[in-house]
Structure formats: structure tokens, C-alpha cells
UniProtKB/TrEMBL annotation, chains A, B, C, D, E, F, G, H:
SMART domains: AIRC
One Pfam family matching this protein: AIRC
Phylogenetic lineage: Bacteria, Bacillati, Actinomycetota, Acidimicrobiia, Acidimicrobiales
Organism in which the protein naturally occurs: Ferrimicrobium acidiphilum DSM 19497
BP terms from Gene Ontology: 'de novo' IMP biosynthetic process
Protein name, as recorded: AIR carboxylase
Amino acid sequence: MNENPTGGLRRGEFGWFDAGRRARIGIPEAVFAAGKGDAALVEMIEFALEGEGPVLVTRLDPERWGLIADRADWLAFPPIAEGEPYVTLVARPLPRTGPKRVAILAAGSSDRVMALEARAVLTALGVDSHLVLDCGVSALKRTLVALDETSDAEVYIVLAGFEGALATVVAASVAQPVIGVPTSVGYGVARGGETAMASMLASCSQGLMVMGIDNGFGAACAALRIVGTRST
Amino acid sequence: MNENPTGGLRRGEFGWFDAGRRARIGIPEAVFAAGKGDAALVEMIEFALEGEGPVLVTRLDPERWGLIADRADWLAFPPIAEGEPYVTLVARPLPRTGPKRVAILAAGSSDRVMALEARAVLTALGVDSHLVLDCGVSALKRTLVALDETSDAEVYIVLAGFEGALATVVAASVAQPVIGVPTSVGYGVARGGETAMASMLASCSQGLMVMGIDNGFGAACAALRIVGTRST
Amino acid sequence: MNENPTGGLRRGEFGWFDAGRRARIGIPEAVFAAGKGDAALVEMIEFALEGEGPVLVTRLDPERWGLIADRADWLAFPPIAEGEPYVTLVARPLPRTGPKRVAILAAGSSDRVMALEARAVLTALGVDSHLVLDCGVSALKRTLVALDETSDAEVYIVLAGFEGALATVVAASVAQPVIGVPTSVGYGVARGGETAMASMLASCSQGLMVMGIDNGFGAACAALRIVGTRST
Amino acid sequence: MNENPTGGLRRGEFGWFDAGRRARIGIPEAVFAAGKGDAALVEMIEFALEGEGPVLVTRLDPERWGLIADRADWLAFPPIAEGEPYVTLVARPLPRTGPKRVAILAAGSSDRVMALEARAVLTALGVDSHLVLDCGVSALKRTLVALDETSDAEVYIVLAGFEGALATVVAASVAQPVIGVPTSVGYGVARGGETAMASMLASCSQGLMVMGIDNGFGAACAALRIVGTRST
Amino acid sequence: MNENPTGGLRRGEFGWFDAGRRARIGIPEAVFAAGKGDAALVEMIEFALEGEGPVLVTRLDPERWGLIADRADWLAFPPIAEGEPYVTLVARPLPRTGPKRVAILAAGSSDRVMALEARAVLTALGVDSHLVLDCGVSALKRTLVALDETSDAEVYIVLAGFEGALATVVAASVAQPVIGVPTSVGYGVARGGETAMASMLASCSQGLMVMGIDNGFGAACAALRIVGTRST
Amino acid sequence: MNENPTGGLRRGEFGWFDAGRRARIGIPEAVFAAGKGDAALVEMIEFALEGEGPVLVTRLDPERWGLIADRADWLAFPPIAEGEPYVTLVARPLPRTGPKRVAILAAGSSDRVMALEARAVLTALGVDSHLVLDCGVSALKRTLVALDETSDAEVYIVLAGFEGALATVVAASVAQPVIGVPTSVGYGVARGGETAMASMLASCSQGLMVMGIDNGFGAACAALRIVGTRST
Amino acid sequence: MNENPTGGLRRGEFGWFDAGRRARIGIPEAVFAAGKGDAALVEMIEFALEGEGPVLVTRLDPERWGLIADRADWLAFPPIAEGEPYVTLVARPLPRTGPKRVAILAAGSSDRVMALEARAVLTALGVDSHLVLDCGVSALKRTLVALDETSDAEVYIVLAGFEGALATVVAASVAQPVIGVPTSVGYGVARGGETAMASMLASCSQGLMVMGIDNGFGAACAALRIVGTRST
Amino acid sequence: MNENPTGGLRRGEFGWFDAGRRARIGIPEAVFAAGKGDAALVEMIEFALEGEGPVLVTRLDPERWGLIADRADWLAFPPIAEGEPYVTLVARPLPRTGPKRVAILAAGSSDRVMALEARAVLTALGVDSHLVLDCGVSALKRTLVALDETSDAEVYIVLAGFEGALATVVAASVAQPVIGVPTSVGYGVARGGETAMASMLASCSQGLMVMGIDNGFGAACAALRIVGTRST
């Protein structure tokens, strides 16, 4: 292993860690655990912990928790004990910067793990969030209550599977930036999130922005770009 | 040309007219003009006019109006003069059966021609309808006004292009049967109506029924089955 | 946990229960079990049982039966013992309102679990149904017998996988409302139900209404809207 | 232009004519007009006329008729005067071999031009056909009449757009080989014939064979392989 | 359980057996095992064995062999011991009618189970077949040897995954009917057989007929229709 | 025509104008010209001009310019004289609020009309923009020059057709919010913008937000939500 | 207009010309005419002619020929007079470097315009090519003759529409690099080239490389990279 | 088992081994293990080892290693012990022919197994390769370092999942042939590699060649065709 002379890159046997990313775009490189073997995962996490600032591990199968539990003082979203499909880990989070700046609205309770991925990333960067689960439009009252509770947010992240209509209704109702995250929740014609994604991209609401399916991580990064991470 | 002995079928050079259809399913066979040559179109219309009861011609290019204008006392939806992509013609409509029984809500003003196709079919069978154009969810207030104005309808037909969220919101708000008609209105990721159709089929609202893209005709037939055409 | 002041909403840790839904659209919110963790599932079922009227749990993995077996006097469709992919549970069904009002025709014997999901929902709301399995058009005689046995139904629900032609033939033969449910039965070009769904949506039969793939639940809700649940 | 020594190939400036094809597979190479410039079209037709036996020109825009009208004694399907989207031309057809050996059933009257393409190819090879237009399943009686009239056919060609159910019903009813031809007739979710094609390929009827969309030519070639062209 | 008066239908708890199918289309109804529970499977097999003539069970998971092993004197394709994804069973096959009448060519050795499904069905109806595995066009010599060995066949069944080019080459080389069966063999852009299927449907070879993905059963039924099962 | 009592809605013969939208989400309702007949277009523009503040007309076919030229003092993007596929019109723009706040980067020169649609909307709301055309990654130097020239922007809008890689490279290089707009520029596998859209949604760059195909209008609305229109 | 200091870039009103591209990748930037207005097209061609070496204009509508005919001594592929859908222009071609180095095989005569686009690009860079039209596998003899005539080529470019099998057969037969170009020739299930493209990408032939649909230009660039343009 | 007289083909019970392939196209037939039963796999490996020259086994599930471990002196990519999804085996590799001739760049560390498949094939044929993992464009510096380290390669193989932009950037930067391999790495809208594949095929970089998803094997074969295997 050697330090790359061009700066900010740590190079190992299985890959490189882009240590300069937070300086460049305001958000550190996250270690994406899903596709990595054990050795590659450990190497990357070590690289990430070598520097300063927050550390993020995404899409970790809870069964691999033992491999890295002792390497840092991790926060887990959701908690490891719950046996979720994957968890997001945060170490060395930045201090909270103030009141709840990002609203996270999820249409169903099954969108929870993606919503928590977004919350984890925001937490790592010191941005507080307000999470409301299960406020989809099949009961419009829930949607209105959720909007009312989050009206002072700077940015909205809206997660929805099935037909994804919650994102359209939120973007039609508020003036803040709205980031839609289609989720793979649903069956049959929900097509693993494709239907919600197309629905959000074709929305008649003006200015709804869309992320890839289940990409709670990306939505949080987008929100961080908007609330301004460089100045924190 | 000869009468088929099995009853109810009139057979010509270009096809057969199913004169028994109204007795069987409550709705007469409509003459679908779009794919027919002039001779075939005239033959079918003559067959349709031979019998009794209402006559329907759908998807007629207004430029072909001269071919059939004099054959009956037609009602046109929309009026021929407007140069629409296609018109629906009605002859010998049944008498009105009473107050407005079917509500037709269209998300945008561009869904008008499909909405009028539905209204034409209902008119032919003597069922009155209440049409509200341009009440999509990008301004939820419009939607609520439209629902309020139509609350005594027996059935809802909801037309929407783009992401088709109006159908989901209507079905979440009323107890009547709701028939969604995805339309080809929109561009890009609207995919000619595929996005709205998938969105309606995957809707989180309980019991929303869906027709094919731009199928205002089918929606009206479905509504007629529901309000009961046999007893009229 | 607290009662939301806007009425009809019960809010918990994992989501909200829309207790006002039956008053609004005639059908109670069903607890969709498939995507929920144990705690979330129990919370929602408790909310559902708190009120009055019928309770529905859909898409329950039979292996989770022990978690909720004792909480109510459940009817299971199909019976729990059969090890089906999922079951639908009903508690506190409304009393039967009369003769068989909804016909459920399934093209193959493999469409059974979706057909039973529809029957469960109808049973919960006190609507009797007449189920005929395996009456697809590859033996037209079966279809004709099934139509004959159900000719006094008020609504038809037709389930079919593969090419879905049964729905087209039924809608061409009866005057009642017909609701098609494409199923994921089949392999290869059946494409998990997409082929049957497209086939039903493009049907040449006038007024066939379509639900999403495997959505027996939605079909029953649609049928309930048609037979009129508010007056029961 | 020169004769290729390997036999059966005539080579020109724009392509080669496979003069040995009829000896090899029983059916001559047809000149596919749609994608060719005038010079290339004339060259290929001249090559085709150089040899003996039947000559076929497919997908000819009627506006190009003048270019080749005088080169042979052509039969046109449909007649040139009708201004159809394309016509199929036959010259030097083989003599008729006997009674109607191939039944051609078309679901709608708009499938006519593809049906005539099939009939033209059969005519060229001396095989008689029985064409029934507009016998789709939305009026099952028509279908039954058509099946009755053609019960002595050796092979069935069935053309259908929309949901293509006619092919499934025919294959469920007869013992002869059935060749389905999905057509591009329909709009919206008919998807230019893709829906009918998938429906036929996924058919629950045993042994239904399928051609590409609008491929009446191929269907006739398949039928000719079945009735045996080598021995004629 | 009761005998249906309309003839040829045996009706049970889980479905109907179409005992009249062989008289109608020349091929008996096969018991499709894949989607059936144990009780439904046994019921259908008992119905099938009640009558006379050949019995077919398709898509049987070898792990369920014990359930039905003793009910008849079964031939298994492939043999049960090999642990294949599924097997096809034949009981009471008709006597062989003569020399090898159907050629079955499979592009790769992995297409074997679908090829054997076709062979099983042919065997049941007394039609002999000539199976050549692994003769795809990546080594054209193999293809030519296979064609040479099977030149006296009456019909060709060609199975291929990946790009499916073998079907095109066979249909370009022989005069007999050619039935293409796209298989799900391959990965990535093979798209579970969709690529081979589209390739066969769009083939430049004249008259290639196509079945659904992995549908060896249907291909054999089609071949039986061609070689004429009624007269056996 | 009448004023709706619920406030902010102007209702006409062909639709409603949501006059309250700017107060609600910071951006006025734009008149989408593409799907409207002449009478409907004029009615909506009159409604829009009745109030105060900026007025937007999008997707206007330049051939319809005469219909509305005299109704206001319009700015056209691009200028009417250029015969573009469509133009965006602005009337009564808000005063400029300061230096260039939004960077608009377009990969090719053919993305110009969509880029100008975005610029028009920003201009209407008083937000200055910096447009760089033709800076795609096939010449990375151009991309770097463009990034250097726009480094003080608050938000990036990136338009690209073909494979859409420019959006990924920009989002990897800057800390500001980046909004990707896939365009329909390209042919064949560009699939009318679907490829660029999928590419942006699946981007490995953290936090890239995506709009629908060719939706320059939506991108500008999103940028306005981010730079904060309520306070202007 | 000004010269960009970073070298190799010429910047105009409508875009930039990457004058350094030939030094970087061996092939000059081609002016893609299809999406450009007249002013933009002229500006780019002037930039291209300012430097030295070969100049390429692709996808030019022949109707725009007058706009640029006099600006250079152009070679047109195909000749302007033939009224093709588009032409490729070459000015200042490099001198021929020797015998025919690239074989261009096209399955049908309708693939000609894409084949000539490839030949034009090769000509511009001084690389001779051997073009054989209409040698698809529906007559395998033609294919074998074409392979025989081109056996000394260094690289093969193979164009094919429909099912694209020619590319598979060529790659199975030769040791040289083979570049497949799926074309949009065909109808129905040819899906505008998608079927041929998928077929080539899934080919069982080892090492077949694929370009986008109709991308004769790209194929020639790929061939040039292989034969080595830097050393010429 | 017998030797086929037409030369180069070894024929067994389960298939044929094309022993003449290396003489024909420069690369031996590889034994594709994924779809084969144990007996078929062993038969093919024995055939392959019977001759001379390098032997390749691809897509071997590591759990089947015991079946063939003793049959040759295998090199495994990656090593068997790592429990990868599949391994590529090489026996009797040709001697190395010189310095690193093929650069293999992989965008992420999860593309490793496909990259090693390519390296295995190159190793078998005596061609050295330079592998750089994890050099995707989300940190452009890594890409530039990788390009710098491999600037003397004769050919580039570029593997990337997600949006696949690395292939576009490499092809825009170097003059050598560039072969893109889209990988199935990613989730949601990455669509199992379809997005990266479309992105590479639509690339604005001139002359990028593309393989099927995850086809590292094919990419190596293509590279071998380019660097010339016949002369080694």
C-alpha cells in the first residue's frame, strides 16, 4: 500500500480511497459494502478511518457486523439488532448544526430502511432531520399532517414505492427543494421501483428532482449540497 | 351481403357487424374508423344504421367527415369544426335517464378529446355526465373543487397523462367506483401514456380500476356496465 | 402512541393507521404484512383491532402466523395449514348480505391464492362470492359452464396468467362489469404477469377494467365499490 | 453484373439475388421493396424475372408502381388502385393445386393488408386460401362461423392486433397447425403489435406457433413449408 | 367430484381436466405440475389416468417424484436420478409410428432439459425424434453435420439461447417446417431468453415459426399438429 | 368565466389557471402550449396576464406566434425568427437579482433549445444564468474550461443526450447542487433520452439529481427552489 | 470567436471545435450535422476547415447540400444526387496507405447508407476498404463468398438489421477483429435495431464487438484505432 | 464417443468440443461450466485436455472445484479459496509474449471478478495484462493515474457498472482500441448492467466498442483478435 502522489488518494490492494472527496464536493467517500469481499471491505474502512472527519459505510449486510464492529464507535441506521436487509454505519459524525433542516417523508412504513440511509448520511455531516414514516396519499390527511409538521425544513426528501404519488403532492404544496426517491416497495407492476421512478420523473409538479431507485444515500448527498456542506 | 343465420351478425365484403352486441352486453358495437378504408367504413356504418338503437363511430379523422355526414343526424364530440385529431360520432342516442350519473375528471386541458370520447358513448346510451377539465393535483384545490361538484356521481372516470396521480388521489377520496384512463399527454418519460398507466395500476389507493392508454371509449363502456345498461 | 386530532388517524412508532378509511371509501385499511418487521406488523394489527368493523391482513407469510394467531378470531384464505406463499386473514367479518353477488373466475388452478385474496376481502365486507377455478379458454367448454353457473352475479372478477385471454372472452359474453386481474402465473414470455396485463388492457372487448398484477385485493375493493359498500 | 460460379447466386451492383432458394427451401427469394432505392429495386426484380417460376415483390409503396408495372404481368394484393400502405405483387404464379388448403382468419378488418400479403405468397406457389376477415372474439359467434367454414383447411394462419386472443381460441379449437401473426393494429397499450405478439407466445393453447409483427409473408412461407412445396 | 354433463370435462376440487382435448386437437391435456400444490397435482393426475391414451406431466420438480411414482409406469425425461430443474413424465405412450419424424437440434448442451421436454411429448404420441445437442453456429461444421444427419425429418425443432442464430441458419438451409424455441440459457443481455426470442421472430429466414421461451412442450405440440396426430 | 371562491383559481371554458401557485411554491404556473387548441391557449394566457408578476409560456410552436404576439411584451428563447421546434416566452420578468447564480452546461450544441427553456424560466424569476454550450466529455478540456468559468455558481443545471456522462463528471467535480437533464439528442440506442436518463439516475457521483427527458423547464424550477424564490 | 488558450479548442457562438482530437485519439472531430441549425453547422465546418488534415461531416440531410457545397472539395458517400436519408462528406482525405485493410460486410442492400458512412470515415483517414453488400445468412453461400473475397482484411465491420445473425457467423469464422453494427433495417419486432443489437451483444461467437444502432461512423473509428492511425 | 470425420470436432454424449477453433479464430473453445451437469462438464474438460495448447474453463462455481481439481495443473482467477461467485480456470497457458500489452481498467472494486475473467483468458494465450481496479470517474484523479500507468498498452478493456461513464472518458482520452464491458454491479436503475451497456453503446466518444454485460471473457477474446493471436 502506498500514498498516491497526486494527493488525496489512498491506494490499496483492492482499490483506492478518495480521501480528497470531502474537500472537493463537501461529502466524504462512503464505503459501499454490498459488492466487496471481506478483505476489500476492511481495507477500505481502514483507509476511511485513517483520515479525519466523518466516516460512512453503506449497504452493510448485518451478518458482517462482527467484521468491523470494533474498528470504530459506530452509529447504526437502523440498529444492528433488528435484522434489516442492510444497515448504514456512521463514525465520527460532525456536531449538530442546529434545528431540523431536512424533512424526510416516507409514503409507507416499508420505505423505512431507505429513509434511515438518508438520515444516517445527514447525521454524519451534522445535519439534523425530521423523519415521518407512512404518510402516503391513500390517506391524504396523513400527508397534510406531515407537511404541517415539517413546514420549516430547508429541503424535502420524499420516498415512495408503488405509484410514487406522494412526491408529486409534496412538490405541488411546498416552495422548498423536493428530492424524490422511488423505492422498490411494492409488487407486480410496481416493477421494483421503476413505476414510482417514472412517475416522479414525469410529475406535473414543477421542479421535482429525482434520484435512482432506493437511493437514500444519494438523496442525502443532494440535500447536503443544497444546505451547503462546505461552510459547516 | 347476406344476413348470417346464427343471428345478430351482418356480414359484408370487409367484415361483420355484431348487431347482437347490445342485447348481449348492453352496449352496441362501435364502428372503429381509424384503420378502415373508405369502402369498409361506409359498409360498417350502413350495417350499424340498419338496425335500431344508438350508433357510435369512434376515432374518425375529421377530414373524412364528408364521407358520412349525410347518412344520419350525427352528434360530434368534439364538434367537427374544431379540427381535433379525431372525433366520436353519435346517432340516435337513447333519451337521457336522469341526473348526472357519471363524473368525468381530466387532469389537464389536453386530455379533452379522450374525455369527450367517453362522454359521447355515455350520451349515446342516455347516461348524463359531468365533465371537469384541468383539475390535476399540481393545484390540489382544483381537485377538491372538482370532487365537491361531482360528489353525487355513481361512477368516476379519471383521465390523466404525465404521472397520472389524479386517479390515485380521487380513489383515495371517494367510495364510488373509479375508472382510471391513462392518456398519452406529456413528453419524454411520460412515454406516450405508459408511465401514467403503470402509475394507476400500481396505485396505493384501494380498488382503482384501469383502462388502456387513451381508451375513453372503454372507460365509458365500463361505466355503463356499472350503472346498468340492460335495465334502461 | 397518540390519537391524531384531525380524526380517524392512529399514529404509532412505525406508521399510521387510517381508521377513517371505511367511512370514507367503504373499505377499511388492510394491514399489508409483506414489507413490515414484526414490531411494525403487531402495532398495525393492534391499531386495526382497536376500532370496530372488519379487519384485514394481507400478504402474510404463513411462517409468521404464530405472531398474531391469538390476537383475534381469524379466518384464513387459504387455510394456514396449506403452506401457501401468503395468506389473507379476516377478523370480525360483516354478516352475509345475501346470495352470491360477485363471480370470481380463475383461468388456472395456480391462480388460486390470488383468487382467495379477493374472496377474503369480499367475505370481510359481507359480500358472498362464487369461485370457479381452472376455467380458462384452452377448453372453451369450461369457460361456458363457468359463465352459465355465475350468470346472476352482479360483478365478475377474472384472474388469468399466461396470455390472459379469459378476461377478454368473459367481457365479450356478459353485460355485467368485468374486472381483470393479470396474474404472475406462467414462465418465460409470460413475464411475471406483464403479458397478461397488457393483453387485458388492450382487449378488444368493450369496457374490460384491469388491476395490477396479482392484485386480488384491489379487484375485491373495486367490486365492493361497485356493489355498494356504503349502504351495507 | 456477373453470374457467381458457386451456383444460384446472381450478383449485381446493389446486392445478390438468391436464385437457388426455391430449390433449397421450396420458396423463391422475394424482393423486399421497402428499403431499396429505385435502381436497386429494378435490378433485383430483373434478376428475379431472369429465372423461371413465381416472382414475388413485397412491401411495395403503391406510389412506386409505375416503376415496375410493365415488367411483368403482375397480380397485386390488394389491387393497386386502393391506395393501401403497401402491396404485394405476384408474377408467374404456379397453377392452383386443388381445394382451399390454407385458412386465413383475421380478427379485424384492419388486418386486411397483412392477410393479403399472406394470400399473395400462397397464390404465387399455387396454394389456394380461404380468407375470413373480422372474426375476432369480441363476437365469439363470428369466430365459430369462421372455424366452421374452414374446418377442412390443412393449416391456419390467424392474424390479430390488440390482445391477439383470436389465435389462442383458434388453437384451442382445432387440430391443425396454427400460425399466429400479431399485427400492429391498435393504439396505446397495443404497442404496435408487441402486446398481441407476447400474448400469442404465452398462449395457454398447446402448440400455437408465432411469427413476427405484421409478418404475413413469413406466415405464408411457414404454411408452405407445412403443406409441402417441394412436391408441387 | 362429478362428471360434467357437457362431455369430456372431469371436474374436481382444484380444477377441471379436459379429457376431450385429444379428440379435439390431437394432443391430450398435460398436467402442468409447477404451480400446483400436492393435492391439486394428485387430483389432476388421477383424472388424467382415469381415461385412455397417453398421459403427460410437465415441469415436475424431481423432489416431488415420490408423490406420484407409484401411480403409473412412468418414463422420465431426463431420468429422475439426475437432479435436473424439472422433468417431464410420460405414461401409456402410443406405439412408435415409424422412423424418426422430428429432428430436435439444440444449440448448446445447456438447452438439454427443454429439448427433452419436447422429446417426451413426441414419445407420448408415438412420434420418434432425432435429438442433436450442442450444434450451434459458433462451430458451423457442427451445424452442417447435424443438418446432414437429420435431412429426412419431417419437421425441425431448433432450441437456442444467447442470440439464437442457429434457428435462422437452419431455416435458411432446409425446406421443412422449422419451429424455433428460444431458451433462457445465457446471462446478461441474453435477458432470460428474450434476446433469442426476438432474434428468431425477426429472422431474415423465410417462414421460421417461434414458440415462447423454454417452451419445448409447445414446440412438440406444434410438430404433432404438423405431422398429423389425428390419423395415428 | 368566473372566479373560484376558494381563492387563487381562475376558471374558464377549457381549464383553470392556478393564480396562487407563485405564492405557494415560489414559481407561477406556466402555460404549456403544446397540447392546447387556439382558444384554450388564448384563454390561459389571458388568465395569466390578468394577475401580476412574471408570465411564462412554454413549448410554443413558432408558427402560432401570431396568435399571441400582441398580447404582451414578450422575450422569446430562442428568438422567434430562428424556426426552432419550440420557444419559451417570458413577459413581465422580475428584475435581475445579482450576479450569475445558476450555471447551465450543455454537452452538445443540439441541447440548446432545452437549455434556453431553462434560461427563460430563470430570467422570468430574476435569476441570472451562465450558459455554456457544447462542453461534453468527448473533449474533457472543454468540460474543465466550462467548470472553471462557472465555479462561483450556486447551482448547476447539466443537459446531455447520448450517454449523459457530462452530468456524472460535473457532479464528481463540484460541491454545489447539480441537476441533470437528460435530452432526446442522439439516435438509435440513445432511445430518445432514456439512455442518458438512466445513466444519470445510476450515476456513481454522489447526489446528482435528475429531471425528466428534455425538461429544462423543470430543471429551472428546481434551481429556483434551491436559490430561494420566496425571498425575492 | 476566439481561440481557447488551453490549446486545440476553437470556440464559437454555438459550440467548440476540438481541433486537438486527431492528435489525441488519431481521428478528427466530425461535424455531426443532424441536430444543428444552419448557422451552427456553418460555424463548425469553418472551424474544421481552418486546420489541416481530413474533414468529416456526418448525417447531412442532402437538402442542405447547397449550404456547404462550395466550401471545400467534398467527396460524398453516397453521392448527393441519390436522395439518400443522409450523406457523409469528406474533404482533404489522407492519401491511401495500401491494399484494402478493412472489410465492410452488410447483410442487406438496405444497410448501404450506414456502410457508406463507415467507408467515408476510413477514406478520410487514408484506409482502403472492401465493401460487400447483401451477403446475409439467409443465403449462406453469399456469406461464404464474401468471407472468401475479404480474407486478407485486417478488421471486419459487419452491418445487419433484423436478427443480425451475420455478425455471429462472421465472428465464428475468422480470426480478425470483428465489429458488429446493428442497423435499424427491418420492421415490427426488429424494433428499430434493438433486436439485432441484443443479438450481437449476446452472440455465442467469441469476441464479437458491438457498436450502437446505425453507428457506421463509430465502427470506422474503432477500426481506425485497431489498424493504427497514429502511425499513418 | 467418436472422432468426427469432418475434422476438429470431438463428439460426446452431451455435446461436441470444437477442437479446431483455435486454428480457425486464434482462441480455443472455452468450457462454459455454468449450465452443465457434472457428467457433461467432465466430458467437455476431458475433450479439451485431449488436444494441445491452452485450456479454459469459465463460470465455474467454486463448489464444483473438487470435481476437476486433479485433472490438470490449473491456474484459478480469482484463487479458489476466496469463495467468489465464479472462477475462471487456465491450464497449459502459452508462454508470455512480452511486456503488458492489454490494459484492464475497472471502475469499482466490485468489477473484479469480471476483470479477472478477462485476465485469465489473456494469460492462457500468453498475453500479459495490466489490471487497475477502482479507477472510476467519481474521482477523476484515479482515472488519470490509471491512464498514465497504462499508456503503452496496445488495447484497453474497460469494465464499469452503474452509469458506465469510465468507458466514455477513456475512449475520449486515448488513441488505442477501447473495449467496454458493462457490468451488473449496482442496484435499482443500474438494471443489472443494462444502463451501463446502453450508456457505452450511445457514447459520444468516437469508436468505443462494447461487449455484453459481465462478458469479460468476450472482451479478452476481442483483445486477442486485435493483438493478433495467430502469429503467437
